[in-house]
Write a structure and sequence with these properties.
Layout (H helix, E strand, L loop, with lengths): L5 E4 L15 E4 L2 E2 L8 E2 L5 E4 L47 H19 L8 E5 L1 H12 L5 H13 L9 H10 L4 E4 L4 E5 L7 H18 L12 H23 L10 H18 L3 H25 L1 H9 L5 H5 L1 H6 L6 E3 L1 H8 L3 E5 L3 H8 L5 H8 L2 E9 L7 E8 L2 H18 L4 E6 L2 E6 L7 H11 E3 L9
Parallel strand pairs: 1-5, 6-8
Antiparallel strand pairs: 1-2, 3-4, 7-8, 9-15, 10-11, 11-12, 12-14, 13-14
Length: about 475
């Protein structure tokens, strides 16, 4: 079955404070990492582009339509000094891309993007123009390559219990709605083909193709298809690789559009602003903001980390990550954690004891990860506060419990680097529970560890339940990590 990769486009962005650049495309590696969904739900692996109007890089406010480049543009690639993408001769917003034009654009920029990424193109990239109906069919097919309808429904009930989607809502439909809102195209590594939507604006063609060409280069050298199968009960591990692939594609695109100035021309403050904007703007742009944030973070936070790695150590340091991938989203959100390969701290519930405490069986268990906590907490906090609350993550575990036809319950435990980190997480999580979760919840902190439960059985002794959860929890010892 083909795979795909989610591609999100932003109408307003700046790669540096002094040089405007075209809106970048986010490639969300079709394994949409979802906050509140304790398993990677894959919608394929190529590059599916979601036009959700988010800034890629910079501090500009959103606008109703894509802004046009304002500086000199060269038809043969990024301008040598300005870093702009190719000139678009049609008026902004012109619709309709034919296959000849798409093929011409891919051929024009392949070698240029390859040179910027420091990876040689080992073959041509096939290009096909497709339509929304076929893209939707592609997404549905690939969404179920590694997950059944029953498993998807289970993940939906877990998500609803955590306030990520509305009770009774279909997680599959939520994902498809997000895709339908702005799919631009995708790269399919099985067919070695880049698919472009026949409906996209011509002024978005260079951005879309540029990002997808970066995925084609990744596929040529590192093999994307083999990286698609989920690791059962290791959602954060899988998400970390998504950050590498999607963040790496965005960074390659940035390297192309910045031209001779290179990635070092991107102010670190601009990278930080792009992360903050991706967290905050989806609150007003999506009916499922936690999921939308989770989809966007690999392309902002992941890109920021890859950019910083390249500036410090060159592209070879990024290439090495494909042989020894990151193991947590914490590593992919903090470059110093990635460089040191700081591991997650072991933490787990005794499932039999938790099942006895809730009087229902465990139906799923997984890990959550810093990126998922961030996407969740940003629903009730500013980006700055949410990032502080999620930072200092040490490790976590999740169990879901449910009787057939009964109410879902979810228990989470997270260990932080120190007590002050746990204090910050506790405060934001308590706010989230109060404002976003229906029904009774339980939240208790002891030292550097927080235990949280949603879906408390009616009439349950809360004190006894809390004690049972703590008794069922094991946290491995580890040397104290340095605070960011």
């Amino acid at each position: 079955m083909p795979h795909g990769s989610i591609h999100m486009q932003s109408p307003v962005n700046r790669v540096s404070h002094r040089e405007p650049a075209p809106a970048a495309c986010y490639a969300g590696r079709v394994i949409a990492p979802l906050s509140g969904v304790p398993r990677r739900v894959r919608t394929g692996f190529g590059t599916v582009a979601l036009a959700l109007a988010l800034p890629v890089c910079g501090c500009s406010a959103p606008s109703a339509r894509p802004t046009e480049p304002t500086g000199p543009v060269e038809a043969t690639g990024p301008a040598k000094t300005s870093g702009h993408a190719a000139e678009q001769t049609e008026p902004a917003g012109t619709r309709g891309i034919d296959e000849a034009r798409a093929k011409e654009e891919a051929a024009r920029i392949l070698d240029a993007v390859a040179a910027a990424r420091n990876l040689k193109a080992t073959s041509a990239v096939e290009v096909t123009v497709t339509n929304k109906a076929d893209i939707r069919a592609f997404a549905i097919e690939n969404m179920h390559e590694h997950i059944t309808s029953e498993e998807m429904a289970l993940q939906g009930r877990i998500s609803a219990r955590l306030g990520v989607i509305a009770p009774g809502a279909s997680l599959e439909q939520v994902l498809l709605n997000i895709l339908d809102a702005g799919v631009l195209g995708f790269y399919d590594p099985k067919k070695k083909t880049l698919f472009i939507g026949d409906f996209i604006s011509t002024n978005l063609l260079s951005q879309t193709v540029g990002h997808e060409i970066a995925h084609a280069l990744q596929d040529m050298h590192f093999g994307l298809d083999k990286r698609m199968k989920p690791t059962l009960h290791r959602a954060d591990l899988d998400s970390a690789e998504t950050f590498l692939i999607e963040g790496g594609a965005n960074a390659a695109y940035f390297a192309w559009v910045t031209g001779e100035d290179g990635l070092q021309a991107i102010d670190d403050a601009v990278l930080e602003a792009s992360i903050n904007q991706s967290l905050e703007l989806v609150s007003i742009m999506s009916e499922s903001p936690v999921i939308a944030r989770s989809l966007h973070l690999p392309y902002t936070a992941g890109a920021a980390t890859v950019v910083r790695m390249v500036v410090q150590d060159g592209w070879k340091s990024v290439d090495a990550l494909y042989d020894d991938p990151p193991t947590t989203t914490e590593q992919m959100m903090h470059v110093e954690k990635l460089r040191s390969r700081e591991p997650a701290r072991g933490i787990r519930f005794d499932h039999e004891a938790v099942s006895k405490a809730f009087d229902k069986p465990v139906v799923w268990h997984d890990e959550f990860g810093e990126a998922q906590w961030l996407a969740l907490l940003a629903d009730v906090e500013s980006a700055a506060v949410a990032r502080r609350s999620a930072a200092g993550w040490g490790g976590d575990t999740l169990v879901a419990l449910e009787r057939e036809g009964g109410e879902m319950s979810v228990a989470l435990a997270v260990v932080m680097d120190d007590r002050s980190d746990a204090d910050e997480l506790e405060a934001s999580l308590r706010k989230y529970a109060d404002e976003r979760i229906e029904g009774d919840t339980l939240l208790v902190r002891k030292r550097d560890t927080v235990v949280f439960a949603s879906g408390i059985p009616q009439g349950a002794d809360r004190k006894a339940l809390g004690s049972a959860l703590w008794s069922a929890l094991t946290v491995d010892a580890r040397e104290k990590k340095g605070r960011r």
